[in-house]
Amino acid sequence: MIARACIAAIWLLAVQAASAQTTSQLGNAATIHPAKPKPVPRHTAIKTPSKPPATRSAPVRTASRHVPVVTPRHRLPARTAVAAARKVAIRKEPPPPPAAVQPAPAKPAPPPVPADVGTNTGLHLPRYASLKSDDVNMRLGPGERYPVIWTYKRRELPVRIEREFDIWRLVRDMDDVRGWVHQATLTGRRTFVITGAADRTVRADASETADAVAVLKPGVVGRIKSCEAGKDWCQVQVADYRGWLPRTDMWGVDAGEAVGP
């Protein structure tokens, strides 16, 4: 019995000793702190692994929003131009011309119109005429589409016809003003007008010593009754007065021109 009690006491002491050792180890383990990492010196750079270089591709240009994209308007697209060139390349040769036909014998050309003859009337140019009414328009060109440059208010005022174009006549007046008038506003009656600043005397005969019939003021218009070729005097009439007047005293007849009665 005593032996068993000793053995039990020894076993109990061994268990207590083992338990105390285990408790001691647990207590020591609770007080253990993990080791701190060593501080990195400031002058030591931290290297991070660099990313692998990306493969470079051709830069892609994109238009920014504030810059407009301008496209040509008048240039044809490439395929249209190519198609046009292709059409030119495959164009067929033109067919051969038909057999030559013997031309009909040409008619003889009309004789040329002399430079001093009107193309419409066949009358000689230049020649004198007179205005048919008190309202005649002179235009800038031979047609109603041309503007009116003058309006004449003197019936029977003499004018000089220099050109003809259809129904229009290029005329010149006593003041060397030129323009186009309609042929319907002209008449073939021969008249004259007194020019200059001095008065002119109509005489009873073709002589400076003949009796005076009338005195004409500048601007007076009268009719020419007759002029002999090469003579210096012409027979004229103004209202009821009839007599002779030198050619140089009036405008409306050329020197040496013959005017019939």
Structural account:
It is elongated and about 210 Å long. Residues 26-32, 43-48 and 60-91 have low confidence and may be disordered. Among the domains are: 127-189, Roll (SH3 type barrels); 192-249, SH3 type barrels (Roll), CATH 2.30.30.40. Strands 6-5-4-1-7 form a 5-stranded antiparallel β-sheet, with no helix packed on it. The chain has a 4-stranded antiparallel β-sheet with strand order 8-11-12-13, with no helix packed on it. With 261 residues, it is α+β, with helices and mostly antiparallel strands. It is built from 2 helices and 13 strands, in the order ααβββββββββββββ. The longest helix is centred in the N-terminal third of the chain and has 29 residues, at 2-30.
Summarize the structure.
With 261 residues, this protein is α+β, with helices and mostly antiparallel strands. It has two helices and 13 strands. It has a five-stranded antiparallel sheet, with no helix packed on it. A four-stranded antiparallel sheet has the order 8-11-12-13, with no helix packed on it.
